[in-house]
Amino acid sequence: MLHRRWFACLMVFSVLTTSSLFATPPTDLAIDKQKLETYVASGQYEQDIAAVTHQAQAYVLATAKANRQLRQPKKLAIVLDIDETSLSNYPDMLKLDFGGTFAEIQQANDRGDDPAIQPTLALYKTAVTQGVYVFFVTGRPESGCQAAQDNLKAVGYNAWQGFYCKPKAYQSIKSAIPYKQAMRKQITEQGYTIIASIGDQQSDLQGGYAERGFQLPNPFYYLP
Ligand SMILES: [Mg+2]
């Protein structure tokens, strides 16, 4: 009986506290979409990306320079994510009104016509000219790997040392962290020192096997 009373009290308490938490309704979805469009159209999105890639570039330059001075230089590498890091899905997001089913998004990816994210392309070029190896690690499935590679080449990412698309074994795992971590581990075991992992999601940064992580802004979507 006492338990029941306690439970009833708890229910009333949680309804009261929850309702006060949501006293202000969330902002209108249409307005939020408009804000995203303004954010991109104003150039602020690209500026915010560049603020991060410039830090990464300075770090790559300094690390590569220090490495060249070593008696036995290491094989330095960076890992780049693809979507919202190296390539932009923004034109497709607009067409799909910031939504779309998994199949529609996949179809859009497979068209292979995504534009480069210019600040990341500049970072890529810095790495290449500094003799730092570039690896792509993407959450795109293996069935979309060829389209992703063709797309990257078409917009200026001409070469890479390794390219990893998500194998079937990882497709059922909700988080991308185990997959991305395992690929970085593989790269490390091949004798490379990953000095930086660059991506727009936490999964690009978590799990180790990279000396530094650089996270680019992505106000459009979150992936676990
Ligand atoms: Mg991404």
Polypeptide structure, described:
- With about 220 residues, the protein is of the alpha/beta class.
- It has one domain: HAD superfamily/HAD-like (Rossmann fold), CATH 3.40.50.
- Helices cover about 50% and strands about 15% of the residues.
- The chain has nine helices and five strands.
- It has helices spanning about 1-20, 30-40, 45-70, 90-95, 100-110, 120-130, 145-155, 170, 175-190; strands spanning about 75-80, 135-140, 160-165, 190-200, 210-215.
- The protein has a five-stranded parallel sheet, with helices on both faces.
- α3 (about 45-70) runs parallel beside α6 (about 120-130).
- The longest helix has 25 residues, at about 45-70.
- The protein is globular.
- The structure holds magnesium ion (MG).
Topology:
Layout: H1 2-21, H2 29-41, H3 44-68, E1 75-80, H4 90-95, H5 102-110, H6 118-129, E2 133-141, H7 145-154, E3 162-166, H8 168-171, H9 177-189, E4 192-199, E5 212-215
Parallel strand pairs: 1-2, 1-4, 2-3, 4-5
Helix pairs in contact: 3-6
